[in-house]
């Protein structure tokens, strides 16, 4: 199907022409497109205007079993293939993704609501780079793990969320394949389309059948994958709640797991920081991808003597943010991923108000249809406030002040999470001091939300365990002896 234009074209609007989407998507199992055993399909919705994009298969236990069997059957020959040959497949996937990068970016934006500028400049290129990067490692595992025997784990069950659909699929699939594992991947129910396009790319790259299987569905599909007896590894990215369910489900089974879970990350500004640069970093830290970012800098800590200045500049900058059609290249904040997520964010905003925090939202007209939320600040919050403690996963920032370094370390670490943090200061020694004391998997200094395939990413505490990216990402898919 060629998509019709849904929005009036203006010079800044990305066209949806030449995007190839099917009306209905089957499951990708054993190198073939197969109808789901349940006969059930569910709609994929464009959150920008609530239009129906395509029907997606709802895989049940039987489909999951077929996919795991296909992956198991493919495992001996895939893991036995010369590593340099495996590398070529990964490289081919990356090249085809690059060729289709515009189409992938537009589909990511249509299906998930993120600004086209972000899909085009961040999600898709990073996803390609993950395949390129891990293609390079496939025949160099002996250098990654010197003097060790390296074996793949077997069949990896992979479950991903809706905030970076294609990128998360790449984070999961590329290191698993490079190390000789086979894969069954389940994308999130609201954003299955780019994973299905990736299945088409994998087909085009000629990957042997069964090496990658993509099954779509809901939580029950994910649960069937986790509980399948013939899975050797679960790689999960999603909420801390589901992460805990998975940990309980695999206890005692011998299945290996990496869990990338939620966050409530601190962005800390000292009075010697380059303030304008820091304000840009705060804005990016919380409003990038509508705040649907596990490592979003959702708690701002600003040193007391510069708080008024920073808040004034921040409010001014927020007034210039354009919230609207994600296909518009000028859009800074696109659509909230789903109606459910919008309700969750709105309920946190009303809790914040009820608990007595002061709210700031710039005046801005939101589109009539679709799911949108204004960028939001909560000032005068206490550490005990719900909006400070819980992950909102939306464009909502809380602001607290601090006087001393010890005070801010204590406050920043005072949540169940430990995924990321940002530190803004002119003092190198302070950066080194904080990186060791902040209980966070990533600490950015004078920048925020920077990702690269060479860098490991993952959490402390309830933000999960295991690392993805870099050599660490390889370690998550191998047995070493
Ligand atoms: P979620 O509700 O936990 O869902 C994640 C994935 O798990 C989806 O594919 C979901 O399917 C599936 N699922 C749901 N219930 C399941 C079950 N009982 N067993 C197995 N799979 C199940 O999370 P989300 O709302 O999609 O994503 C947001 C969360 O992900 C946030 O907490 C965020 O911080 C976290 N996240 C973490 C990272 C990281 O690297 N640490 C990165 C991105 C996001 P359905 O879509 O059908 O529900
Ligand atoms: Mg959608």
CATH architecture of the largest domain: 3-Layer(aba) Sandwich
* Cofactors, ions, other ligands: NADP nicotinamide-adenine-dinucleotide phosphate, magnesium ion
CATH homology superfamily of the largest domain: Aldehyde Dehydrogenase, Chain A, domain 1
Residue share in β-strands: 15-25%
**Chain oligomer state:** single chain
- As residue ranges, the low-confidence spans are none
Strand order of the largest sheet: 14-15-16-13-12-18-19
Q: Indicate the percent of residues in helices.
A: 25-40%
Radius of gyration: 22 Å
What's the main sheet like? Answer: 7 strands, mixed
The shape is globular
First and last CA, distance: 51 Å
Mean pLDDT: 96
Q: Output the CATH topology of the largest domain.
A: Aldehyde Dehydrogenase, Chain A, domain 1
Task: Give short descriptive properties of this protein.
single chain, 481 residues, alpha/beta, Aldehyde Dehydrogenase, Chain A, domain 1, Aldehyde Dehydrogenase, Chain A, domain 2, 2 domains, seven-stranded mixed beta sheet, six-stranded mixed beta sheet, 16 helices, 22 strands, 40% helix, binds NADP nicotinamide-adenine-dinucleotide phosphate, binds magnesium ion
Please provide a written account of the structure:
The longest helix is centred in the N-terminal third of the chain and has 22 residues, at 116-137. The model has no long low-confidence stretch (mean pLDDT 96). This protein has helices spanning 61-80, 83-99, 101-112, 116-137, 141-144, 165-178, 193-204, 219-227, 240-250, 275-287, 307-319, 339-354, 386-389, 405-412, 428-437, 470-475, and strands at 24-25, 27-29, 32-34, 41-46, 51-57, 150-152, 155-159, 182-186, 212-214, 233-237, 256-260, 266-269, 299-303, 358-360, 376-379, 396-402, 417-418, 420-424, 442-445, 460-461, 464-465, 478-480. By secondary structure, it is α/β, with parallel strands linked by helices. It folds into 2 domains: 24-260 and 460-480, 3-Layer(aba) Sandwich (Aldehyde Dehydrogenase, Chain A, domain 1), CATH 3.40.605; 266-445, Aldehyde Dehydrogenase, Chain A, domain 2, CATH 3.40.309. It has 16 helices and 22 strands. Helix 2 packs antiparallel against helix 4. 40% of the residues lie in helices and 18% in strands. Magnesium ion (MG) binds next to strand 4 and helix 3.
């Amino acid at each position: 199907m060629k998509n019709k234009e849904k929005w009036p074209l203006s010079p800044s609007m990305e066209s949806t022409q030449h995007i190839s989407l099917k009306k209905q998507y089957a499951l990708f199992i054993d190198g073939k497109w197969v109808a789901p055993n349940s006969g059930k399909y569910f709609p994929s919705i464009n959150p920008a205007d609530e239009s129906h994009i395509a029907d997606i298969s709802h895989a049940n236990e039987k489909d999951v079993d077929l996919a795991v069997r296909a992956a198991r059957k493919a495992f001996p020959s895939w893991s036995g293939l010369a590593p340099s040959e495996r590398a070529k497949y990964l490289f081919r996937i990356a090249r085809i993704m690059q060729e289709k990068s515009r189409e992938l970016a537009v589909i990511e934006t249509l299906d998930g609501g993120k600004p086209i500028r972000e899909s085009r400049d961040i999600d898709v290129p990073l996803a390609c780079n993950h395949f390129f990067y891990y293609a390079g490692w496939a025949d160099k595992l002996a250098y990654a793990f010197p003097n060790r025997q390296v074996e793949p784990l077997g069949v990896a069950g992979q479950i991903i969320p809706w905030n970076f659909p294609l990128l998360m699929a790449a984070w999961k699939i590329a290191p698993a394949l490079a190390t000789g594992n086979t894969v069954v991947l389940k994308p999130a129910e609201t954003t299955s389309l780019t994973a299905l396009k990736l299945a088409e790319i994998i087909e085009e790259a000629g990957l042997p059948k069964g090496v990658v299987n993509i099954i779509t569905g809901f939580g029950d599909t994910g649960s069937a994958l986790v509980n399948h007896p013939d899975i050797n590894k679960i790689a999960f990215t999603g909420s801390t709640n589901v992460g805990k369910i998975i940990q309980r489900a695999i206890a005692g089974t011998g299945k290996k797991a990496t869990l990338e879970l939620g966050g409530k990350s601190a962005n800390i500004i000292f009075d010697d920081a380059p303030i304008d640069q820091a304000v840009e970093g705060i804005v990016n830290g919380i409003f990038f991808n509508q705040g649907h970012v596990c490592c979003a800098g959702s708690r701002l800590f600003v040193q007391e003597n510069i708080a008024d200045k920073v808040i004034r500049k921040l409010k001014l900058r927020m007034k210039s943010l354009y919230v609207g059609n994600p296909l518009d290249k000028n859009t800074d904040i696109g659509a909230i991923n789903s109606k459910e997520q919008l309700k969750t964010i709105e309920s946190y905003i009303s809790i914040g108000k009820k608990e007595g925090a002061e709210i700031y939202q710039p005046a801005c007209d939101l589109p009539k249809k679709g799911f949108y939320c204004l960028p939001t600040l909560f000032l005068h919050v206490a550490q005990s406030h719900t909006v400070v403690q819980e992950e909102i996963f939306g464009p909502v920032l809380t602001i607290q002040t601090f006087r001393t370094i010890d005070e801010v370390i204590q406050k920043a670490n005072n949540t169940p999470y430990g995924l990321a943090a940002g530190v803004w200061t002119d003092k190198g020694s302070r950066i080194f001091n904080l990186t060791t004391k902040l209980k966070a998997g990533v600490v950015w200094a004078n920048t925020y939300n920077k990702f690269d395939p060479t860098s490991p990413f993952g959490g402390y505490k309830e933000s999960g365990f295991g690392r993805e990216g870099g050599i660490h990402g390889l370690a998550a898919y191998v047995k070493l002896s």
